[in-house]
């Protein structure tokens, strides 16, 4: 699995540069309508043909960096180990294995090892966050109805 990871939080200086670059690139992308574009590396004067979608991805990376977020880029069809999936979900590996065995997440077996599609792990995480948010709102509404927020 090929993963590009900037797992350390960007420095304040990197955040400032990323913010300026993100703003500039956002404006440039609004004017690009071709599927391919050419960019020039100032230091070497070399020109590169780049798919416009790659520039859009770069812009998203710059946005995340400007907000101080660590970044990982993983090819969508990538399969991850149970340990990596557990790390992504923020749970223990044994808990993840229970989720797999209960059919909450699809997996395949490679020999004795389970592999889970990265996109399935991310999708499951998003569903769980939405469910948590819904339950929190439900709890807050219930507390409000019971007068828990009266002063």
Automatic annotation (TrEMBL):
Coiled coil: none
Pfam family, one: HTH_17
Biased amino acid composition, Basic and acidic residues: 11-20
Residues covered by the Helix-turn-helix domain: 81-127
Region Disordered, annotated ranges: 1-20
Protein name (Swiss-Prot/TrEMBL): Helix-turn-helix domain-containing protein
Species this chain originates from: Belliella kenyensis
């Amino acid at each position: 699995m090929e993963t590009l990871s900037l797992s350390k939080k960007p420095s304040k200086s990197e955040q400032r540069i990323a913010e300026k670059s993100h703003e500039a690139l956002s404006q440039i992308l609004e004017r690009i309508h071709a599927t391919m574009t050419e960019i020039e590396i100032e230091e070497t004067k070399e020109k590169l043909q780049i798919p416009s979608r790659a520039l859009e991805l770069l812009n998203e990376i710059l946005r995340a960096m400007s907000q101080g977020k660590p970044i990982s880029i993983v090819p969508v069809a990538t399969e991850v180990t149970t340990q990596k999936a557990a790390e992504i979900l923020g749970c223990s590996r044994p808990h993840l294995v229970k989720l797999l065995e209960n059919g909450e997440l699809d997996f395949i077996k490679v020999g004795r090892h389970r592999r889970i599609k990265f996109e399935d792990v991310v999708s499951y995480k998003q569903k769980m966050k939405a469910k948590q948010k819904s339950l929190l709102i439900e709890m807050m509404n219930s507390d409000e109805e019971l007068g828990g927020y009266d002063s």
